[in-house]
Amino acid sequence: MGYNYTNRVIESYTVDYVSGGDIKLSSVTSGGGGVSCCFEYYPDLGEKLLVKVRWQVDGCTYVLRNPVTNATADVRHLYYQEKMVEVERKTKGVPEFVETHIFPNGSVKVFLTAEMSSPILRLDATRTDRSSFPRCKNGKRPPQ
Predict the structure, then answer these.
(1) Does 69 fall in a domain?
(2) Is residue 66 assigned to a domain?
(3) What is the CB-side half-sphere exposure of residue 20 using CA atoms within 13 A?
(4) pTM of this structure
(5) What's the sign of the alpha-carbon dihedral 21, 30, 98, 58?
(6) How far apart (Å, rounded) are the C-alpha atoms in residues 7 and 9?
(7) If DSSP codes are grouped into helix, strand and coil, which group holds residue 26?
(8) Are strands 50-65 and 10-15 parallel, antiparallel or unpaired?
(9) Contact between residue 52 and residue 16 where contact means Cβ atoms under 8 Å apart
(10) Edge-to-edge strands of the sheet including 50-65?
(11) Of 12, 42, 48, 108, which is most buried with the most CB atoms under 10 A?
């Protein structure tokens, strides 16, 4: 379950290379993301569990031209950030959810919970959405 406290839609995020899908902007009552499946968890491997969280933080658009038909389409190029995060266990029983909370300052928290939580931050649902991407430099696809 993803929670997005930034000011842009996160089009893609992963936890240990498992896709969490996209996360809309969190509101007062909603984290912004849906539930995706599945994540392997081995509680007997030790107390400390670290995961790599990777999420889209920005992007730009460029025009792609089909050389055969000459048709054009706007394509998005996404930029990502990733961090190793220690997972906090919020349940004594068997965890049912992996919650990923992405904050405006670039910090991330990951929790194991028995049920879905309410958002940690109560952000105004009408805050400025900065999900639109500018044109890429020179209108071309950036190098990988």
Answers:
(1) no
(2) no
(3) 29
(4) 0.83
(5) positive
(6) 7
(7) coil
(8) antiparallel
(9) yes
(10) 2-4, 97-102, 108-113, 72-89, 50-65, 10-15, 18-23
(11) 108
Residue span of the structural domain in which 10 resides = 2-58+79-131
Distance CA 41, CA 111 (A): 12
- DSSP state, 107? -
Residue 16 lies in a domain: yes
Both tokens of 117, joined, read 């939580």
pLDDT tens digits along 68-105: 999 999 999 999 999 999 999 888 878 888 999 999 89
Structural domains counted in the chain: 1
- Residues linked to residue 80 through DSSP beta bridges, in sequence order: 56
- What is the chain's length? 144
pLDDT at 29 (0 to 100) = 67
**What digits encode the pLDDT tens for the residues 37-60?**
776 776 666 678 899 999 999 999
Alpha-carbon distances, residue 58 vs 1, 77, 81 (angstroms) = 21, 9, 9
In a domain, 72, yes or no: no
